[in-house]
Amino acid sequence: MPHARQESIDRQAPAAGDRAAREKEEFMEKYMLSIDQGTTSSRAMIFREDGSCVASAQEAFEQHYPKPGWVEHDPEVLWSTVCNCIRQALAKANIQKGQIAGIGITNQRETTILWEKSTGRPVYNAIVWQCRRTAALVEKLKDSDPEFIETVRDKTGLVPDAYFSATKIQWILEEVPGLKARAGQGEILFGTVDTWILYRLTGGRSHATDYSNASRTMLFNIKDLKWDEDLCRYFHIPMCMLPQALPGASEFGYVATDIPGLEAIGGVGIYGILGDQPAALFGQTCFDRGDIKNTYGTGCFTLMNVGSDPIISRKGLVTSAAWSWMGETTYALEGSVFNGGSTIQWLRDELKLIDHASDCDVLAETVPDSAGVILVPAFSGLGAPYWDMYARGAILGLTRGTTKAHIARAALEGIAYQVYDLVTLMQEEADCPITALKVDGGASVSRFMMQFQSDILNCNVDRAKERETTSQGVAYLAGLFCGYWPSIDALRELRHCDTLFTPSMSEEKREKLLKNWKKAVSRAGAWEEKE
Ligand code: ADP
Prior knowledge:
alpha+beta, 7-stranded mixed β-sheet, 22% strand
């Protein structure tokens, strides 16, 4: 049974079933199901009590680019791929009714969907977080209202940007004829992807989200954990469209019993929702203040648990409410590196220096150091702490003796330097020194980069054995809520270290390298001319 209950939002109670069936169910092994609706694919994973994955399924879907810089998904396709993945995962593990104890949902954040309350039909494609169609609108707001940036930062913990849902909602309301009036009359609902999947899974009974997803809309006050009336007015968004915002571990609703192929989970509770990055923070068991993780994917995402007081960054990091447990909300400070693993893809696909991403390590280790070469992967500008959209990529320190091995090494080091910058800034802003960086993601398989990361940060780098910390994280949170796992401490036991990288570089060398990196970044800065 769930530990706590919130006020009801017309959720369907689990189907009762007859006594014999219930008794049979009690003796069957139970599992947690997690749904991960991501930017390029949907996924379902089934976990057992020891935290291991019993079965999983994944399905990619089409990206729509209607204009340069615009990115959309078809909401019906997001839903159908989620259903397909759940069906396949259930079939692979031969799951019978009564064996899924609870469900967690994690998702691509900020992506915006509007649909009709009466039919559940989307009124427009999902506008994806990457979509830049409202960038000019945000710039205009920043220019025309000197207090806009401060207001947004203080209330929402965000740096105003087109990524976040607010201007995407505003855009759809303005572009679809007649929609504004209908939204004002309560006929149109808004949701991020978690809300959309929850709505469909519960047969339209639950219209809710969690604090972490709400935190990325630019409409949510992260201090009082409520939708902000002033911001909604500012963006002309009727508050009746917004989902109920609940703690990440909550009774979000129950799966409808009439979804074809999902009968085995009909009536099962959805007990956890977290956006993808906070889910990974939870999956990495970063439960204590100062715990920090970095995911090395195409880009890198660094998140630090900063405890129960939100820290409003002054240097371009963002703060979100992450999860709440036992009545206490945990906040996360977040920063991202725009080009992480994509730098390795660039060496492979554009420079053709390597055939496979894994060759980069092999090549890098054929030389003892980068021979003074520094690669600044500022292909699309630099984020925190520099925030220079006009910076461009640069390779500095070339000599006649530079080889492709030096460049491969400098590329891996360049990713690690950027993560160093973020982690250092986070330590400063949170006033919290770290003892270890927990890592995951596709590019974290690079042993060379992880060792260099440890050396340059002068702290341990702890690579998780578990590959899917995002799915795992939300399964853990949902499982905690429904009593599948007994405590936070029980969850700590489920994480296993794959490799612990410990620092071995001399302080003198470290300082010299960092000085060169700073110099190289300054040369790459403000390269592109402003129009
Ligand atoms: P995403 O979730 O962003 O798609 P993944 O976590 O799947 O990313 O990681 C993919 C990235 O990892 C790619 O950019 C790729 O270049 C990088 N990568 C994969 N294998 C290696 C490797 N052996 N060494 C370095 N980078 C790697």
